[in-house]
Specification:
- With about 90 residues, the protein is α+β, with helices and mostly antiparallel strands.
- It has helices at about 15-30, 85-90, and strands at about 5, 35-40, 50, 65, 75.
- The chain has a single domain (about 5-90), classed as Glutamine Phosphoribosylpyrophosphate, subunit 1, domain 1.
- Strand 4 and strand 5 form a beta hairpin.
- The longest helix has 14 residues, at about 15-30.
């Protein structure tokens, strides 16, 4: 089971070095939930972190995923039960 960590603050700027340390600490606490990969993104309004248990797509699932401009990112957890069927439809 993967783990997602982070927080969101409106009208506040968190120093990048503080957000990185805090997210690393949160991810260390839930490391048992995602021993295969971990990632975080430093930002000053909503820093996300993700620990990942790889079951399918072992090499291609690193998170957070940033936009092309790297001005926003997303972390998510889920599973598509019909993924093999969807891949054959392409």
């Amino acid at each position: 089971m993967c783990g997602i960590s982070g927080w969101f603050q409106i009208n506040a700027k968190i120093p990048i070095q503080y957000s990185t340390l805090a997210i690393d600490s949160m991810m260390a606490t839930i490391a048992h939930r995602g021993p295969d990969d971990r990632g975080s993104m430093a930002c000053d309004a909503a820093p996300p972190g993700m620990t990942r248990l790889s079951i399918i797509d072992v090499d291609g699932g690193h998170q957070p995923i940033a936009s092309d401009a790297e001005d926003c990112c997303i972390v998510f957890n889920g599973y598509s039960y019909n993924v093999m069927h969807l891949r054959t439809e392409q």
